[in-house]
């Protein structure tokens, strides 16, 4: 029989508290328990009252081979109860981080976000430099002659000056 140390939700709506129980692995979250080991109240302000454990019974179940869930494992570590499952998980995590770093991939969400920001900044910088080079080449290729800008106006003989030329309005 595989035993887990698991939380069971109690309390009313929007005011939860949890019991820390030793249960058989195949039972549902709020199903039959083997032993009540303590409670966890996330809403409690006083840290001393937030977690209440029967420490010797928790250590008994851990020595018997009970596997705590991730949340219960964090609660136990917060209370100073060290167990091999937390150490194994930490070792797996450091190994995975080392592999990810060796491949050059981000391991955490923060690393991924910072890598995306640096890549985006480098891309924008390259784009700006390319535009500067393009503008410089364009300016070098087309020198603007001043003589062409100042063309004398040629007036047609018999034409009215531009100010006098107006479209004739149709009368209705």
Care to describe what's here?
The chain is α+β, with helices and mostly antiparallel strands. It has a domain at 3-85: Ribosomal protein S16 (S16 Ribosomal Protein, Chain: A). Helix content is 47%, strand content 18%. The chain has helices at 47-50, 55-64, 70-78, 84-103, 109-141, 146-149; strands at residues 3-12, 15-24, 35-40, 51-53, 67-68. A five-stranded mixed sheet has the order 4-3-2-1-5. β1 and β2 form a beta hairpin. The radius of gyration is 38 Å and the shape is elongated. The N and C termini lie far apart (104 Å).
Distinctive features:
172 residues; alpha+beta; S16 Ribosomal Protein, Chain: A; 6 helices; elongated
What is the element layout, followed by pairings?
Elements lengths: L2 E10 L2 E10 L10 E6 L6 H4 E3 L1 H10 L2 E2 L1 H9 L5 H20 L5 H33 L4 H4 L23
Parallel strand pairs: 1-5
Antiparallel strand pairs: 1-2, 2-3, 3-4
CATH-wise, what's the superfamily of the domain at 3-85?
Ribosomal protein S16
Residue share in helices? 40-55%
Class from helix and strand fractions: alpha+beta
What is the ordering of alpha helices and beta strands? EEEHEHEHHHH
User: Compute the gyration radius: what is it?
Assistant: 38 Å
Query: Treating each run of at least 4 consecutive H or I residues as one helix, how many helices?
Result: 6
Strand order of the largest sheet: 4-3-2-1-5
Q: Which geometry do the CA atoms define?
A: elongated
Question: What's the total count of β strands?
Answer: 5
Give the uncertain stretches in residue-range form.
none
The CATH topology of the domain at 3-85 is S16 Ribosomal Protein, Chain: A
Secondary-structure arrangement, i.e. CATH architecture of the domain at 3-85: 2-Layer Sandwich
Please write the CATH class name of the domain at 3-85.
Answer: Alpha Beta
Beta-strand residue percentage: 15-25%
Q: In this structure, how is the largest beta sheet organized? A: 5 strands, mixed
N-to-C CA distance: 104 Å
Mean pLDDT: 83
